[in-house]
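To assess whether the prediction recovers the assembly geometry, we first specified each molecular entity separately, as shown.
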Amino acid sequence: MNGPAPTSPETSFALRRLISFAPVEADEQVLLQRAAGSARAIPARREILSQGAPIRQPLILIDGWACHAHMLSDGRRQILHVLLPGDVLGMSSHSDPTAPTTIIALSNVLLCPAPAPPVQQAEHGLTEAYARSRAQDEIYLLRHIIRLGRLSAPERIMDWLLEIGERLAFAGLGTPDLFPFPVTQEVIADILGLTSVHVNRTIQSMRREGYLQIKGGTVSILDRERCVRLAEYPQIASAAPTGISR
Amino acid sequence: MNGPAPTSPETSFALRRLISFAPVEADEQVLLQRAAGSARAIPARREILSQGAPIRQPLILIDGWACHAHMLSDGRRQILHVLLPGDVLGMSSHSDPTAPTTIIALSNVLLCPAPAPPVQQAEHGLTEAYARSRAQDEIYLLRHIIRLGRLSAPERIMDWLLEIGERLAFAGLGTPDLFPFPVTQEVIADILGLTSVHVNRTIQSMRREGYLQIKGGTVSILDRERCVRLAEYPQIASAAPTGISR
DNA sequence: CGACAAGTTGATGTTACTCAAAAGTGGTGG
DNA sequence: CCACCACTTTTGAGTAACATCAACTTGTCG
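The predicted structure of the complete assembly is given in tokenized form:
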């Protein structure tokens, strides 16, 4: 549905993102390619990792969407973090790591083991790429806290959509203004701490006012300027003018 | 105000927490003690690290409370994470790290440089302690997302207080049911994504119903059983019965 | 075509926010 | 000891945002 040849291109997309974090040596790239070749498929809704379980080995998401999720005893669900192609799951820097949360597939996904860097040399290659990927994930977590704590429903939705668009574009899957979007409004609600009904009404209102369009599993940002303003979305690679003097 | 000799004991409290994460060799403990001895004081409200600035060197919080905070342009503030004695700031595993958020002192604090482990041996000593401390911080971030996304105001406040009590007790500062508490209701509001007025009313209601007491900079959990139930607080070191079959 | 999931709509309820002011608290200097 | 200040907590009344409940409609896939 989303391109000419659906078999091998996704692989390189996912790896492209990871490689962009740091200069990865040719031999390491081969390791990645080989790992990606052995990726296994997991159907939507299936649990990938369960909370508290020991992590056998870190994984790379090659295709599809997944998420960290937490259920409360009365059925409320909060999705903590969305995982997109190229994201690394379960990478930890200490011994005997256990999964801090349950990870489930949001769509059909392809997963492969994350190859260990051949040389454990810091500040270079794959080691550095993994470290930066993890640091970036932490930034997304922090931004998510801001969203949930201080943004209104329209702001939350817009801010999150802009982030997803940016992340997907980073992996070569669409552009920041037009990207594939395989999740239901119920999932959006569980990510953003809202109800699906409220998500629906809010999206409709944004659609009516010409901000964006969501149709057929695709998001189009129609007026990026206004969208960014609505969400106070932090500009990519801009000087941070956060200086609050005295 | 909080004990007989206010000069040196805090130092060992903070280090106790860090050391508890992994067996730290005697020589490494000496490094920590020496670093703590050179701690410098920073007054409340002062900025410790600003967003986007390069991190010169990781720090250990020896005494007092600090936090990661983010301001929106219209004055809204979200506190992302609270830092307590023994917490490590700005520890990163990749090269040229920059501060993902601004860190400010919530009270007067003592800070010292985090000594680099003498032997860069994974799975042992200080390296492992730092790694586990960071992993634990990530778990607190995830829990915070659940709080903000899916818990009501009373649940948020209770859940957060229980977490703070546990963390302080872990560092030897009070017990999980009785601990020092140097922050205003306005700060609580900015942590929990509420307004200070609503925090006030909610705390009063919990006080009236016998859950807890907050007075004179001290929190007392009066009925832990009921508090834990109110917040669905995850039990420490309990088997995780999260198995959702099929 | 039928069944099931997803999206949409309406009516109503509740939680939490806003604005504004009063009352309490602690520190400082005369 | 008191007066004063700034800050924090508390209270009240009105409002806005979001949730809830319950249909109904649309779309998709076998």
